[in-house]
Amino acid sequence: MRMTSLTKLGLVLTTGLTLLATPAQAQLAVDVDNAGNADLIIAVPALPTPRSDSTLAGTTEDLGNRISDVIASDLDRSGLFKPIGRSAVKRITVDEVTAPTFPYWQGRSAAALIQGFVRSNGDGKITVGCYLYDVALGSELTRQGFVVEPADWRRAAHKCADAIYSRLSGESPFFDSRIAYIAETGPKGNRTKRLAIMDSDGANHRFITNGQSTALTPRFSPDYKQIAYLSYLDGNPRIYVYDVGTGRQRLVTQSRNPTFAPRWSPDGRFLLYSMAIGGNTDIYKIPVQGGTPVRLTDGPGIDVGGSFSPDGSQIVFESDRGGGQQLYVMNADGSNQRRISFGGGRYATPEWSPRGDLIAFTKMQGNFRIGVMSPSGGGERLLTNSWQDEAPTWAPNGRVIQFFRTGRGAVSSTVWQVDLTGSNERRLPTPVDGSDPSWGPILP
């Protein structure tokens, strides 16, 4: 998908506009540390079209409605905004896209306004324009344009929402991304666990494996082309890499010993994994294309769940070497191993934030809760308080965490997300039960 300035597309409805915000425009912003108490009302009317042309994904008029809905839904899920969707406001014309009727939007109590358009290009593709306005000042804050295949209209909507989110929060985007997870069906004791992928909002859901062998702990490669996961394909827990484009998969190591908990290096060249030999489990690193694995831990006990720091220089992992599960950090070559968790209870499934400033984990002390701490072990905070929340995975911008939740006595589990304030907790829709989510980076 190509994203560019509307001025370069020759699609400007007026001229002389700029992408730069003035100091006065910069006053409109949301407080990311106050998520869950959203008070910035943002209007998202349907995107008009110069002419309702047919495309392979529907008419441009219909796409304008659906794109508006996705933008409003994305912004609502962030917990920072109160979107007013198209059903509650007037339809705008193409002429209004760059000349909003600000008094009308002020009458709707909107602080911000998203307008745009959808146009068929005549070559089978469509152009989606996206504009953000400060209603009180009557000024434009940003604009972007996207030339896409009609089938990619949802990505254009997510990109628009990402641009709005970043402009008003100052944070990196996260809507145009995908999630791998384990789709679960069947009775307790005989669950079918399939690998599946979907967009960050649960749309475009797709099963990857057929359930003939149990799949667990998936992780997208940084370029989204492959998924590393644990499979019982030959009856034993072993790590495979699935090629999303070809549908082929291959075993990472040739060892007959159980291997599990794969994690990609930030550059996509290596995999971390754990391997159990003779009752002892250690963390190893191996080139993605195969080769000789390097053992990074060698002490007694169970060392699992290795996760690279975003610069690839360090690894966080869990170990019971001290008598109970705790979090440890080591250099990428296995040196300088030191414990970082010292609170009560046990700690598991650590994952380093893509921003590098925090480590998410599961804390087991009575119930299972999702928490974060600094890489040095300071500032521990628990973000959830249900019966059993586990296996955190970070959004690309490092402000939202997904995990899976199992209720007391329940067979099924579901995928949830929470932001770093702990106040914007939401369930992600999946067609069947879900566990082990893995959030990939922003789509290339």
Keywords:
six-stranded mixed β-sheet; globular; 444 residues; mainly beta; signal; 32 strands; single chain; 6-blade_b-propeller_TolB-like; 3 helices; four-stranded antiparallel β-sheet
Protein model, in words:
- The chain has about 450 residues and is mostly beta strands.
- The chain has helices at about 60-75, 100-105, 155-170, and strands at about 1-5, 40-45, 55, 60, 80-85, 110-120, 125-135, 140-150, 175-185, 190-200, 205, 215-220, 225-230, 240-245, 250, 260-265, 270-275, 280-285, 295, 305-310, 315-320, 325-330, 340, 345-350, 360-365, 365-375, 380, 390-395, 400-405, 415-420, 425, 435-440.
- Strands 1-8-7-6-2-5 form a 6-stranded mixed sheet.
- Strand 3 (about 55) and strand 4 form a beta hairpin.
- Helix 1 (about 60-75) crosses helix 3.
- The chain is globular and about 70 Å long.
- It starts with a strand and ends with a strand.
- The model is unreliable at about 10-25 (pLDDT under 50).
Judged by helices, strands and strand pairing, the structural class is mainly beta
Q: Which geometry do the CA atoms define?
A: globular
Strand tally is 32
Q: Mind describing the biggest β-sheet?
A: 6 strands, mixed
Outline the low-pLDDT stretches: 10-26
Q: Can you list the strand order of the major beta sheet? A: 1-8-7-6-2-5
Average of the residue pLDDT scores: 91
